[in-house]
Amino acid sequence: MHEITLIPGDGIGPEIAEATREVLEATGVRIEWEVEEAGVTTLEREGTVLPDRVLESVRRTRVALKGPIATPIGTGFRSVNVALRHELDLFAAVRPSRTLPGVPTRYEGVDLVVIRENTEDLYAGIEFEAGTPETAELREHLRALTGERVRDDAGITVKPISVTGARRIVRFAFEYARANERRKVTLGHKANIMWFSDGLFLEIALDEAPSYSDVAFEEMQIDQLSMRLTHDPETFDVLLLPNLYGDILSDLCAGLVGGLGLAAGANLGWEYAVFEPVHGSAPDIAGRGVANPLAMIQSAGMMLSHLHEIDAAAALAGAVDRVLREGRVRTPDLGGTASTREMAAAVSKAVRRRDLRD
Ligand code: NAD
Description:
The chain is globular. Helix content is 43%, strand content 15%. It is of the alpha/beta class. Helix 10 (294-306) runs antiparallel to helix 11 and helix 11 (310-326) packs across helix 12 (340-357). Helix 7 links the parallel strand 8 (184-189) and strand 9 (216-221). The protein is built from twelve helices and twelve strands. Nicotinamide-adenine-dinucleotide binds next to loops.
């Protein structure tokens, strides 16, 4: 029996979380869920988007499955998603994108994994609002230190990238490549412009790469990498990216293989793991029962592997492939008319059928 924290989230979160639970049940893996609300619901009820008990629960169970959570704008609250990654030190986001059977896309044979640094960079949350005394003081310091003048009406976001943070994610990416029999790591950066943040990230990668001689390494400026990904994505394997570029290219890679409704992800640290789809709360379709649950279902598949439930993980992946290949049940984002529930039922049935065959 695995004890797992379930954070359904908001928007389409509860709908796809329910669908995912149904599929997990079909795998036969025994899970005791600790359901914890966070996001818009708790903001209205408890005055916070991330109650302490949510973090306490994940610290106890060590593993969470999470739906998307909206970042309410103008409430003074920062993103719950970013806060969770910081609080639990989930420094590595792992986001696979591969061509799936029966999903029409522009490209064939895409099979890549984004490894995104999750805690530093422009997402560190160090910001100075335009027009405040703190920002004026910072501007003065910057002028004294660098001779550069920042405009009086500027807001400022700080981009820290540390040796420690860079080294652990670089090693993680190479270790991941090795463990998953992947042949190449490509680092995306803008080291020619940001010498001391992206440049440092690149320097650490160049320092570590020779220790992994069985994995090829290449580095590329992020703009060039973006172009190449839309041109010949099948030539890439593991993409190692600092936080902001990782966020952007995750969605780009999802688009290469059929869209956000299919993009799964894991946030991993030394102690805790939180599995969640790449997409957000999709307010435009929330409550209509038409969201594609496959991104969250496949995130749950990654969770099963993490829990060493290898047979169940394979059964789930096989069932998703089978439903997509057959093409009878498709949600609107994939050109069909099926509901979230119908998709969950089809995948659950395919999981069970596989059980019978075995
Ligand atoms: P989004 O990912 O929610 O939606 C983008 C588009 O993709 C929308 O048209 C949506 O309908 C579609 N889409 C997304 N998931 C889908 C699914 N499973 N099935 C079918 N269609 C799907 O991005 P957004 O609209 O920019 O963000 C909405 C909210 O989610 C924002 O508050 C944002 O901050 C938040 N967000 C949360 C996370 C997270 O929880 N990890 C990630 C990204 C965005």
